[in-house]
Design brief:
alpha+beta; elongated
Length: about 675
């Protein structure tokens, strides 16, 4: 027995020195410091977006050209708000389960689909409306339910994944919308406390996490005796990436969950002004930084076999979120040096080399480990990009690289001018084929492009104000005089602008010339930007074409005349109309086909009703026909036009404005068609 005990002691001592000592991540990160993010004090009134008005502008501009995901369309058609709200209320009793078919077959009551739906509503609104607007009611309902019922608790098993993933996305959405949800102080306090309690809990038991093939490599997979430290090595002779007083052998997740976990703690700490939670987020972030190797590879994503590229793109998203968080704290996250000796910007630079046919060896060496590959063996990465498996993951489909450029646009604009100058945002939006996952898939609940651009607009606006203040300080008297002069000039400009705007929206007058009534000329001009598309002339049509260009008034674009009406006026800056010069006896007119976007949603239904009431002038009720010349005795035609005008002027401001501008453009459109076709 003594002999056996002695052997056991010897064996135990040998084993103890065979592997690194297990230590807590808090102890690990004490072995190195990152000066830029140590000891940050949370600002009292922190916000991710400085002014929601600018964010709304960017969001609406971006999504106006995009289609609606199938899942969202089906939810909207089937009372999706209530379906998802009822489903998500059951979080504590449902195990997370999402099938790939959720993105192919339409509506499915799972977390991805419902959170995607909530995100789409937040970003864009209800597309079933004629004029969609951003809608945060669903997000508000989720937060009020969870916080008022003490719901949404961390459980063991697969639900752990959905807990951090969903909590992270709710935190991301809340970071934008907190002050704009119409919450009372009591409700904000209740939601804040709920977020803090949910973000404070630790990651789950590693005994279950180890099965997922994360940082800690299960022994049964360790066939080549790969060293099991927080760093995963490609060969057994590799040097550890991080060496401190004690090496670290991973005991919890270091992939998507830890990224979501870290984002949640940082954001909620800042939103709720909770210093303790924010500091925990800093520790989490330092821990994540230890997984960036000297070549810029984010190791926990790179060892996913044939999915190494698919997962590695998430590095760009999450670390871009970190960059925007620290940008609000006046810290350039990209210049931070990580424990392996490189800067964050170097890791970003590396991750933009992984999208082409030849995958860098720096990733291949980790991909060979094949952990969590979901039947995508690492050898997939040796094939040309188009021949690799996709299985609906989307990473090899058109638009992914461009999507990540948009998400990390601050890095690209600052450090990669070659990518930035060659990036056509408008072309990218129109070329997206797999919109559902690109825009609203798992983990992405922040539109970083909109955040960045909105803050740039805000900062630019207030920078101009600050510059003016500094000039005033240099010479108070001179600048006061200049300010007074400038104020007068601005007032005159404003008065002139408003006078021109009032002239613009005044109804065109008919003047008598010989025995005819003729519409008066004005300063509204049509300028072609593309060649017209000639149509076959039909009955009564002298000239017919689809014209493309813009309307200007006194050589100025209409959208600049009145900011309050910009939502209508901007339609005339990129104008496309099917038009015709029409003649029937002594009657001449110009027809505008209003059954095409964008004017169909404003004018078509109204025009049909008015034509039914007043009668039609030559063309069908899909045309808005403006009389330009007729015999003074032609009472029927004249009365028809008077009736048209009267009824249009009884509609709302926006309809009136559209009618007046289109009416006023009849002369210039007629001249263009007659002189250019």
């Amino acid at each position: 027995m003594k002999f056996l005990i002695l052997i056991f002691i010897i064996f135990f001592n040998i084993s103890a020195f065979s592997y690194e000592k297990l230590i807590d991540r808090n102890e690990l990160v004490q072995h190195f410091s990152i000066e830029e993010i140590e000891n940050i004090k949370i600002p009292k009134n922190w916000s991710l977006v400085k002014d929601i008005k600018y964010y709304d502008e960017v969001i609406q501009d971006h999504y106006k050209d995009m289609g609606t995901p199938k899942i969202v369309r089906e939810f909207q058609a089937n009372n999706g708000d209530q379906l998802c709200f009822d489903h998500l209320k059951k979080f504590d009793s449902i195990i997370y389960k999402t099938s790939r078919e959720a993105f192919k077959m339409g509506t499915s009551l799972d977390w991805d689909s419902c959170i995607m739906y909530a995100k789409f509503r937040q970003f864009f609104g209800n597309t079933l409306k004629k004029i969609p607007d951003r809608n945060t009611d669903l997000l508000k309902n989720y937060l009020l339910y969870y916080s008022s019922t003490d719901s949404f608790k961390l459980q063991q098993g697969d639900n752990h994944y959905s807990y951090w993933k969903t909590l992270s996305m709710l935190a991301q959405m809340y970071s934008i919308e907190k002050d704009h949800l119409g919450l009372s102080d009591k409700e904000i306090k209740m939601i804040n406390e709920w977020f803090i309690s949910r973000a404070t809990v630790d990651l789950m038991d590693i005994k279950l996490q180890a099965k997922r093939g994360r940082c800690k490599i299960p022994k049964e997979y360790d066939e080549e005796d790969v060293l099991r430290t927080a760093k995963i090595y490609a060969t057994k002779n590799a040097e550890p990436i991080f060496q401190g007083k004690t090496k670290y052998r991973g005991t919890d997740d270091c992939g998507t969950i830890s990224n979501a976990h870290t984002v949640t703690r940082l954001l909620i700490g800042l939103i709720t002004n909770n210093q303790e939670l924010f500091d925990k987020g800093i520790i989490d972030l330092k821990y994540l930084m230890t997984f960036i190797d000297k070549d810029g590879v984010y190791v926990p994503y790179a060892y996913r076999g044939g999915l190494a590229i698919s997962y590695s793109r998430e590095f760009l998203f999450y670390f871009s979120v970190f960059a925007e968080i620290f940008h609000t704290l006046d810290i350039n996250f990209y210049e931070i040096t990580v424990p392996s000796g490189i800067k964050i910007k170097d890791a970003f630079d590396f991750h933009y080399t992984i999208w082409d046919d030849i995958v860098p060896n720096e990733i291949i060496k980790y991909a060979k480990l094949n952990f969590g590959n979901k039947k995508h063996d690492w050898t997939e990465l040796l094939k040309p990009k188009k021949e690799r498996k996709t299985d609906g993951l989307g990473v090899y489909l058109p638009g992914w690289k461009e999507t990540m450029i948009r998400q990390s646009i601050r890095y690209v604009q600052t450090y990669r001018n070659d990518l930035f100058l060659n990036f056509d945002d408008q072309l990218y939006r129109k070329s997206l084929g797999y919109r559902e996952q690109n825009l609203f898939g798992a983990n992405h609940a922040l539109n970083l492009h909109a955040v960045i651009r909105a803050n740039e607009r805000y900062e630019g606006y207030y920078k101009n104000i600050e510059d003016e203040k500094q000039l005033v300080a240099l010479n108070q008297k001179r600048l006061k005089e200049n300010a007074k002069k400038l104020k007068m000039e601005k007032q005159l400009q404003l008065e002139d602008q408003m006078e021109k705007f009032n002239e613009l929206i005044s109804l065109s007058k008919y003047i008598k010339e010989d025995q005819f009534l003729i519409i008066d000329n004005n300063q509204l001009n049509f300028i072609a930007t593309q060649n017209p598309i000639i149509n076959d002339n039909k009955e009564f049509e002298l000239k017919s074409a689809r014209i493309r260009g813009k309307l200007v008034y006194f050589n100025q674009n209409l959208k600049y005349f009145n900011p309050d009406k910009s939502n209508i006026l901007y339609h005339f800056d990129k104008l496309e109309f099917k038009t015709a010069v029409i003649k029937d006896g002594n009657t001449e007119a110009v027809g505008f086909f209003i059954s095409d976007p964008p004017f169909d949603k404003y004018l078509l239904d109204i025009n049909k009703k008015i034509v039914e009431k007043c009668g039609r002038l030559i063309k069908s009720n899909k045309w808005l026909v403006i009389l330009t010349k007729t015999n003074v005795n032609n009472k029927k035609i004249i009365n028809q036009q008077k009736c048209n005008r009267k009824n249009y002027l009884q509609e709302g401001e926006e309809i009136q404005l559209l009618y007046k501008i289109i009416s006023k453009s009849a002369t210039t459109v007629r001249n263009y068609l007659e002189n250019n076709l």
